[in-house]
Design brief:
about 110 residues; about 25% strand; globular
Length: about 110
Amino acid sequence: VLFRSRLAQVRSSQWCRCRETAELAFGQYQDWPALNSFFGDYSTEKAQTRQVLEFAATRPASGNVMLVTHQVNISAAMGVYPSQGEIIAGRWRDGRLQAEFRFGAER
């Protein structure tokens, strides 16, 4: 396990790279189809993004949650464009999911 924090849960896209990242970094995860990439089929973008935003808006304030997903999903939900391998910590505030801080590997 690479990341040690107080995580109430870890949810991951069902794509193998996300699953592997979740397993290696956090030791456990739950598949969540709402986090699957819609890059190849944008017809599911609105429904998937709505599920993620509803989850963020209604989850309990206690305990951190890690979502392991793809650039298109992050951009749709947060309005930011992540770099490859970048981690973006967000918070539900003022009726939207906002990026609080970002960090990634040095190149």
